[in-house]
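User: I'm designing a mutation panel for Protein DETOXIFICATION and want to avoid disrupting the core. Could you give me a predicted structure to guide residue selection? Please restate the sequence first so the numbering is unambiguous.

Assistant: Good idea. Sequence first, for numbering, then the predicted structure tokens:
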Amino acid sequence: MSCDGSLEERKVPLLEHLASSTVRSTDDDDDDQEDGGLVTRFWIESKLLWHIVGPAIFSRVASYSLFVITQAFAGHLGDLELAAISIVSNVIVGFDFGLLLGMASALETLCGQAFGAKKYCMLGVYMQRSWIVLSVCCVLLLPLYLFASPVLKLLGQTKEVSELSGLVAIWMIPLHFSFAFQFPLQRFLQSQLKTMVIAWVALVSLLVHILVSWLFVYRMQLGVIGTAATLNISWWVLVFGLYGYVICGGCPLTWTGFSMEAFSGLWEFVKLSAASGVMLCLENWYYRILILMTGNLKNAEIAIDALSICMTINAWELMIPLAFFAGTG
């Protein structure tokens, strides 16, 4: 289906409502100045912003809470198990998460431009291109998970922590591939102001994660492997929840099915995505280096546990300003 036909004439009610509210707020400047104009404009703009930011904060905090809950359950297993989960979550998955999240951020610009230009079906094409590029990147990053144990030993981590971390990393490979689909889906829906959908799916995923974590750790007693496996299940619940909404009629204008057009212009998309990915990855890496350096201290397991918990709380809090950035975008 072409993006230039009758779709351009169709409207998105929520966007029109927000746009008309903004127009009304700026057309009456003279009247506003007479009776609290600044306060009125601030109130109108705040409502528009919080309509996006509120659900975005919840969805980001809920998504990151999956890692927090996993670390909490691992802490009940022992210091070594918590250290292994912490290193994999904060260093290996953290590097992976930052790179793929940055690469998916290119979709915000492209989808925002296409949506504003009423090229609605191009949003689906851009999302499919992002799936392709991020999936290839996931394949290229696989050695990071497969050879985590010898790499950590080379970086000075203890033998026990390195070997258990390597085992946990292999079990988190499904989580690794879920990022390639979840991040583009999130930005695809966010650009259409469907932040409430993302928030509801994040809530379902969080509840599933709590239930599965309790089941695997306490009832089935699967240990650190079960703790790692819970993240795979919960993140794929996020992916299938968002994807199910898209293909089941939630985005009739912007999702018209799979298209071969997604395979065109991939190199330009790669260049735009790679620049965003490297930028975000470099900003994140000094946190990861601190954890690796901690592994060289005495009582490495306890030191890694303490620092990773502090950094997890810090990253948890960071989800709030990140949601505001998303709302601004």
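For picking mutation sites, this is relevant: The chain has 14 helices and no strands. The chain has a mean pLDDT of 80.
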